[in-house]
Design brief:
The complex is a heterodimer of chains A (81) and B (415). Chain A contains three helices and no strands. By secondary structure, chain A is mostly helical. Chain A is globular and about 35 Å long. Chain B has 415 residues and is of the alpha/beta class. In chain B, strand 2 and strand 3 form a beta hairpin. The chains are: A mainly alpha (81), B alpha/beta (415). The complex binds pyridoxal-5'-phosphate.
């Protein structure tokens, strides 16, 4: 579980932070916090799908479901079952 | 009564929250033609003030050029005022097609289609050339009109970090399975004044079989040795699949835009782009003016050379005075202040000194990146720039920011 969290956190930091010094944690609001714009969610969704060999339907890939690392991991787990 | 008190209150509250956030936009009325010296009424109702304009996109000083004005008059006399039709019904004159050919020649492309504005070109082009099987990969700092066009298109959309070629390459790999790939960037970025790395981008596009679109609104007419644009500067003329640009800035500054590039892509726009199909194109008087602009620029590089010299002079002056600038060599010269209120205060004081330059802050630029965006023109003479510099130094001293680093300014004023 924690492993997944760290994988997603690492990806978000590399993919979205411009300034390496910025700090985010598992519960930092990503989309409502302006770190990930709703456009750029596409790459996050693709990354998760490739990494975990799952398929997340568009209607589940809402800005709310992607709003923090914690929430993203919950979503991924739902499709891993 | 459909616009009931309840409805009105909804809007009044929204307007109030815009005011409370300090981002309420107010127009300043200019009573003269667009030029280096203008007469401004601000705030509304106050007496006219003569100021030097340091924030127009009038890069080549052609907005009120006598030859352009004369050509526009002639166009008005020979082709009339309006067309009362969209292009494909009865809204196309010989001069519209002539302008498309001239733009094609100027930009070194295969074909061109006019749009009412570059906003419309960007709104229409993506939907016209891509489908849901395709992907658009855009720089994260592209202009708002591109964002809107992307929203209207069913292709998948992804972004790459500003001017970050490694990140772009990763994205091209990630989306390798898509039918068509289109990489999207501004040529010169309007807020920072930096230039896209088109040479590297073209190489990546060739490697991954992707097309590239460049919005050259802040470059057409003056960037590159003969002013053809960012593709000329980067040595990739003929290799940009789509260029969108405006006639509303350097190229006369009236209005209008275009999509220029591969002839099949231009043809797709002619068949499918909605702002072209469902809105009147550029008025004959403006077409005539732009034709004159292109003939002036094709005949001589004098104006872009003067702009280049003015830009170097202005950047050097500000740097020596001790301001923090965004690095670059384009006529967009952002003076960094970081704090939003400071940018508003400096802008107001500059205005009192007779210099018209606007402060930009969040959400127009990123939080903590507030600035005065100055723009140099070939219409500026040395005395304009000297007077503007004097004013900047006076105001800079007042706020004690001269010679201060980014960190020091932020410590003093906060973000
Ligand atoms: C990069 C860019 N693209 C497009 C536009 C829109 O141009 P137009 O005024 O022709 O709609 C602008 C104008 O602000 C711009 O800066």
């Amino acid at each position: 579980m924690d492993d997944k969290k760290d994988v997603v956190l690492k990806y978000v930091i590399e993919e979205y932070l411009e300034d390496e010094d910025d700090e985010i944690t598992y519960d930092t609001p990503l989309i409502s916090g302006g770190i990930v714009d709703s456009f750029s969610m596409v790459s996050l969704k693709r990354f998760l799908e490739n990494k975990y060999s799952i398929s997340i339907p568009d209607e589940k890939a809402t800005p709310e479901a992607f709003d923090s690392v914690d929430k993203i991991v919950v979503l991924v787990n739902e499709f891993l079952k | 009564m459909s616009f009931s008190d309840k409805v009105r209150t909804v809007y009044q509250e929204q307007i109030k929250s815009i005011r409370d956030a300090g981002i309420f936009k107010q127009e300043r009325f200019i009573h003269s033609s667009q030029a280096a010296d203008i007469e401004v009424e601000f705030p509304a109702g106050s007496s006219l003030k003569k100021v030097i304009n340091m924030c127009a996109n009038n890069y080549l000083g052609l907005s009120s050029h006598p030859d352009v004005v004369k050509a526009a008059h002639e166009g008005l006399d020979s082709r009339g005022y309006g067309m009362s039709s969209v292009r494909f019904i009865c809204g196309t004159q010989d001069i519209h097609r002539e302008l498309e050919k001239k733009v094609t020649e100027f930009l070194g492309t295969e074909d061109t289609i006019l749009f009412p504005s570059c906003m419309d070109a960007n709104a229409g082009v993506f939907e016209a050339v891509l489908t849901k099987d395709d992907v658009m990969i855009s720089d994260r700092l592209v202009h708002a009109s591109i964002i809107d066009g992307i929203r209207l298109c069913s292709a998948v959309h992804d972004t790459f970090k500003h001017s970050n070629m490694e990140h772009l390459e990763k994205k091209l790999q990630l989306h390798a399975d898509k039918r068509l790939k289109l990489v999207i960037t501004d040529g010169v970025f309007s807020m920072d004044g930096d230039t896209a790395k088109l040479d590297e981008m073209v190489a990546l596009c060739e490697k991954y079989d992707a097309m590239i679109l460049v919005d050259d609104s802040h470059a057409s007419g003056f960037i590159g040795k003969t002013g053809r644009g960012t593709h000329e500067k980067c040595g990739v003329m003929g290799k940009i699949d789509i260029i969108t640009t405006t006639f509303g800035k350097a190229l006369g500054g009236a209005s209008g835009g275009c999509v220029s590039g591969r002839k099949e892509l231009v043809e797709m726009c002619r068949q499918k782009a909605r702002p072209y199909l469902f809105s009147n194109t550029i008025a004959p008087v403006v077409v005539s003016g732009v034709l004159k602009v292109l003939s002036i620029l094709s005949g001589s590089t004098e104006r872009r050379d003067k702009l280049e010299a003015n830009t170097a002079y202005w950047r050097k002056g500000l740097t020596e005075a001790g301001f923090v600038l965004k690095a670059g060599d384009t006529p967009i010269v952002p003076v960094m202040l970081f704090n939003a209120k400071l940018s508003q205060d400096v802008s107001r004081d500059l205005y009192d000194e007779g210099i018209y330059a606007i402060g930009f802050f969040f959400p127009v630029v990123a939080n903590g990146q507030a600035r005065i965006r100055t723009q140099v023109s070939a219409g500026h003479e040395t005395h304009h720039l000297d007077k503007a510099l004097e004013a900047f130094i006076k105001v800079g001293k007042k706020y004690d920011i001269l010679g201060k680093t980014k960190q020091e300014i932020i410590e003093k004023y906060g973000l």
